[in-house]
Amino acid sequence: MSNLRKWAGALVALAVAAQGEPDVRRDAVVQAVAETLPSVVNVATETVVQSRDPFDEFFRQFYHTRPRSEVSSSIGSGVIISPDGYLLTNLHVVNRATRIQVKLSDEAGGGIYDVEPVFSAVSHTDVAVLKIIPHEKGEKFKAVKFAADDDLLLGESVIALGNPFGLGVSVSKGILSSKRRAAPKENEELTRDNWLQTDALINPGNSGGPLINLHGDMIGVNVAIMEGAQGIGFAIPIKEVRQALGEIFVPETASRWFGARVRAAAPLTVESVEAGGPADRAGLKVGDQIVELDGREPGDFIDFNRALRDGDSMTVKLTALRGKERIPLTVNMASFAAFFHQRLGANVTEVTPQMAQRLGVPNGLLVSSIDDDGAAAKAGLRENFVINGIDGNPVGDYYHAFLALDAAQKGGVVEISVLIPQTRGNVILGYRHALAELKLENRR
């Protein structure tokens, strides 16, 4: 009988060995890291910096030379948020960069890609969005999973990920120390008081990488570590990230005038409608719930805004729920070119980095043509003037100019800051700053 028991015990041992015992090293941390690694990227930037040599202006006047420039570089991290290649990083990582590239992690193939900024001006959250330019049509990328907005447990284990030098992913583990802390960035004090605090080390170059929980869900975006504070690190909460994405993916950031905003939460509810804008002309009202977009469910506010922003058509069909009534609406979005021509009586073009370097002028809007009887002509603007401020607000692109003009009362007067070219023949020697008052037009 004892022999039978021995044989039975041996058979059980063999069966357990055949099935394999769990690897105690592959705990929740390792699994969460493995799940997220393919979404983490290295972000490398180059920025052209104009020389400050005091003799440059002297030589430019007599020899028509261009300003000298130097190239500075920096590194950071990012995290892919959609299979089609949208990714998040910090604004301070990519701000003012003239060239940006990302390198995927080894787990995702390690490829190097050029990217284009989608929009990177939500400065109060330090969030920027980039779009990977795929090597081939239809290429897909591994996206990180978002945690729920308020799914945070004080003391829970968290993991900070980054790809600071493109040599591989950096991983550090800690706990969630606080949900509300004021945080410094780049030796400057911030006014935000609700960033996440963790003792997980945010190593140099890890800014823009994800902070994840043990499920592998992103609860925040790494920002900075406080020097001299025993390794206290900070991350932007996922709730703020979602809100920032809601601002970034509005149609207006793609030079499309929709004229309404939806709340950054479910259900998809209209919280503002611009009087006289495309949404208003279509009949959309504050409080309407958007239940259909071109015959399908609109998704969350990010999906909805992305569809408006990146869709092939400038015309969208919406179904709004107003009380218990379903109301079909057709919104004909307008281009920013049409918006500016309507308000200014002029055609304007964004000054690209290449144009800025060639012309030696800061970013702004280049006046390409003027209506003889338009508001711009009456204010004294001419072709090749550069608009770089409206009512004291700097405008370096279409979107900021749109915001400034959109905030001004239609038919009212705004102060325009312009750069007037100083020429010798066909050569632009420099620009003179001037201010002009412009009465906005209200043509449709």
Descriptive labels:
444 residues, alpha+beta, six-stranded antiparallel barrel, six-stranded antiparallel β-barrel, 11 helices, 39% strand, globular
Strand order of the largest sheet: 1-2-3-6-5-4
Helicity, in percent?
10-25%
Alpha-beta classification: alpha+beta
Number of strands: 28
Radius of gyration: 27 Å
How would you sum up the major sheet?
6 strands, antiparallel, barrel
- Roughly what is the average pLDDT, rounded to an integer? 83
Number of helices in the DSSP assignment? 11
* General shape: globular
How large a portion of the residues is in β-strands, by DSSP E? 35-45%
Query: How far apart are the first and last residues' alpha carbons, in Å?
Result: 99 Å
| Low-confidence sequence ranges | 61-65, 184-191
Structure overview:
There is one protein chain. By secondary structure, the protein is of the alpha+beta class. 21% of the residues lie in helices and 39% in strands. The strands form seven sheets. The chain has a six-stranded antiparallel barrel.
Layout of helices and strands:
Elements: H1 2-19, H2 28-36, E1 40-50, H3 56-63, E2 69-80, E3 86-90, H4 91-94, E4 99-104, E5 112-122, E6 127-132, E7 145-146, E8 157-162, E9 170-181, E10 184-185, E11 188-189, E12 195-198, E13 210-212, E14 217-226, E15 232-237, H5 238-248, E16 256-257, E17 260-262, E18 270-273, H6 278-282, E19 289-293, H7 301-310, E20 315-322, E21 325-332, E22 334-335, H8 336-344, E23 346-350, H9 353-359, E24 365-370, H10 375-378, E25 386-390, E26 393-394, H11 398-407, E27 413-424, E28 427-439
Parallel strand pairs: 7-14
Antiparallel strand pairs: 1-2, 1-4, 2-3, 3-6, 4-5, 5-6, 8-9, 8-13, 9-12, 10-11, 12-15, 13-14, 14-15, 16-22, 17-18, 19-20, 20-21, 23-24, 24-25, 25-26, 25-27, 27-28
